[in-house]
Amino acid sequence: MLMGKGGVGKTTIAAAVAVELASRGYPVHLTTSDPAAHLAETLKGSLENLTVSRIEPHAETERYRQHVMETKGKDLDAQGKALLEEDLRSPCTEEIAVFQAFSRIIREAGKKFVVMDTAPTGHTLLLLDATGAYHRETARQLGPSGISFTTPMMQLQDSKKTKILIVTLAENTPVLEAAGLQSDLRRADIEPWAWIINNSLAIANPTSALMRQRASNELAQIDAVTKQHAKRWAVVPLQAQEPIGVERLQKLARHSAS
Ligand SMILES: Nc1ncnc2c1ncn2[C@@H]1O[C@H](COP(=O)(O)OP(=O)(O)O)[C@@H](O)[C@H]1O
Ligand SMILES: [Mg+2]
After folding, report:
1. 88 occurs within a structural domain
2. Ligand 2 centroid from CA 68, angstroms
3. Residue ranges making up the domain that contains 54
4. Total-model pTM
5. How far is it, in rounded angstroms, from Cα 168 to Cα 170?
């Protein structure tokens, strides 16, 4: 899972990771929980072994509504149906529907690599809240019975199953925000696996004086990430050409110049 604030490169890095894994022959599902993401534009193509999807809140909500009406609503009289329909118009419905789609995709990770591009931090934390609430409710209901269960939250907390990559820029505010995200994740017992410092000029070896000045301004932030915040890290250079399309994404993942 790629996490971080808007515009730092989550979608790009997610696509690059997915392309690299797929080209090594692994089955990969690249997906996004960000309604604003543009995986298709970033990928601009297809690869064997790679499937691409998105969690689309409206479609998921509609699917969930229909499912509830066909199951819970099936035996209700007209008035009961009307009440249920009204219940389903509440904003919580979308939250539940998106969570269900998220859970469905997480379950696939037993069979293939699932690379998930997430929405900017705030939205993702809301999704994690829903994930935590579902876990507590499941534990409350099943815990005393001794039945064993695995919730999506338990999968996110299991570092063998889930690797969270925090994406940031080598700038003060983005690094502070990323550190805040890491603390929020840790409060939910989720330990980020690595940090990615994207769009770095320092590692791009620029020649112009202005760019070199900007590159040297990054060093303090890179230092903070690598020494204080991250257990593992990678620095991705600012590319001369926008990293879209399978070929450029693969170059980005393989560390070669574009
Ligand atoms: N290393 C990079 N070098 C150059 N451009 C980049 C790099 N990473 C991302 N971009 C560009 O920056 C913009 C934002 O990236 P994106 O992956 O959409 O961010 P996010 O998903 O976090 O909002 C896109 O236009 C993308 O092509
Ligand atoms: Mg994005």
Report:
1. no
2. 31
3. 2-64+97-254
4. 0.90
5. 7
